[in-house]
Specification:
alpha+beta, 4 helices
Length: about 100
């Protein structure tokens, strides 16, 4: 018998300046999530900055977005610098 879950199996959240983050994606690191966000919001979290994040949550957000994640980006004017950032993060993770 499958146990009853109160929450849907997939967390859906937005990281966009004009929309409030419902923080579903941070509640359970083992829960699959779809996070839609801007290059600025995702990138700042990957670099331990995080617009609107507290000092204590910055490493958590960087870890959640930087491990076991598929990042898809489509902002053509920012694509190349952001892609370089993602590649640099990937190379550093492989090195360590």
């Amino acid at each position: 018998m499958i146990p009853f879950r109160e929450e849907p199996p997939l967390a859906i959240s937005t990281l966009r300046g004009q929309f409030a983050d419902n923080r579903e994606w941070t509640a359970d690191p083992a829960r699959p999530a779809v996070v839609v966000g801007t290059v600025d919001m995702i990138g700042s979290r990957l670099l331990f900055g995080g617009y609107g994040c507290s000092y204590k949550t910055r490493p958590l957000h960087a870890g959640f977005l930087g491990q076991d994640a598929l990042l898809v980006h489509d902002e053509a004017h920012l694509e190349e610098p952001f892609q370089k950032l993602l590649k640099a993060i990937e190379c550093e993770q492989r090195r360590e």
